[in-house]
Here is the input.
Amino acid sequence: MSGKGGRITRRGLVRSAAAAALASTSIAWLAEHGPASGAAPKALRILQSEPVFGFNPVLESTNWPETNRLVYNGLTDYSPSGQLVPGIAKSWKVNDRADTFTFTLEPGVKFTDGKELTSEDVKFTYELLVDQNVASSLGAFLSNLKTVETPDKYTAVLRFDGPNTLMLPFLSPMGILPAHLWAGSDPRTNKYLRQPVGSGPYILTEWQHGDHISFTRNPAYFRAPKPAIDQVFFKVAPDASTGLLSFLNHGLDAVLSQGIPGGPPYDQMRRIVEAKPAGMVSSEYEQNWGQYLFFNTTKPPFNNVKVRQALVYAIDKAFIVKTLLFGFGRPQESIILDTPATKWAHESHIAPYDYSVAKANALLDEAGLPRKGGTRFPITILATEGFRVKLSEAIKEMLGAVGIAADIKAYTYGEYIGRIRRQDTAGCVWTLFISKQMDPAAICEYVNAKNAQPGGTNFSAWSNAQVTEWIQQARATTDRAKRRPVYSQIQSLVHQEVPMMPLYSANGVDLWYNYVVGLHSIDSLVGTMQTVEDARITSS
Here is the structure.
């Protein structure tokens, strides 16, 4: 970007030219010849990230339920059309006030050690979610849970202090743990983090950290004869571009958008989608996901609202979508996104912060932060390898145009999210792809003052009593007509105070070879991974 606020150049953004060139060559070959001939692989090989903590859905919460889905079942599941369907619960009832949920379990569901899954395991799992000593990031969404009752071994009743609008769409698909293996232990050191025992379609057989995770078919799976594929192999690539190149060279069978930190390499995905290689399936779909920029609002310089507003003016969202996402997304202005699941609550009348270097500079001057030798102040941009580094480079250049000198520090995803959760973020900005926004109540927890502490979901540590009151008010009813005006107020105040900045929503793009059948792209809590048990491999 020029010193006068000019545009970012491609040269300034693209740092992986060699990988892109190799990928382009592979794409061109595939478009002409199709996939290589030969015997179909015996295992379904997928590019995926590793869990941060391990195989415990309470700890992984919203991070990587995709990987946990192979090992554990939730009370509910999602169908290929994204609708809730039975999981280990064959049916459920919700009372008129939406404060009591009764789940009737499928009898005979067993964990892979042979012990039957019962309502006591459901009780243990959900009580672990709200245990303050465990500090699950999902606890905020279940904060009004009063009791979990088990009138018999196949019935679990969750009672809440007031309605819980997130219980079914957001919480019920989360995996159920075997209480007999986890009770009385520290969930962060329990050996079953790496040697999980679940009721799901697969059994983890090998985990080489940083390289791969292997699974084999669970012969006692309660949905027999599923799964159809005997083995699933996760390849953990150092970055998504490397993984995509392996896919193009037939080292992998599928690349799924969900499970790639920050998102897939959109430039290469665009080439693939447009090339339409023979023998390859590409599935694009609108996700209920959003990329947001965060700052620690309790420490200088971001404890000054004018500085936060200046950053919004300084960042050109439309250019990011065009240049980095290659059109796979849309700029977003409000914390509650204009996406399928939350469109009903999205406030479309909020005036956008139009990209303006002049307005950003004026606000920084008003904040008492003049240029000294061309620089106002330094900050650190936290990032992970892959796409988030490219996004951070774009943000760095944009902020440089208004005198903010940024240094980028890249980490593994585990180190990255760990630092953010500790709120070791003074003088930092960072981006997070907040996924699975099935209800506006989910994203609002990121500005709830009750979560503004280390380990909470309010990563900006922003505290506003009025917004917190409105959040509780909106969750006190299931009536959308009553909830919508409250969410409008929340969006307006958050838009003004900017504790976090919405950047864009991104489309998902799933790729697989056509010898894999039965996969379905789903934007849900567990995503496309939910359909792996339906998949099968035909001869290639």
Q: What stands out?
A: Residues 480-497 form the longest helix (18 residues). DSSP finds 17 helices and 20 strands in the chain.
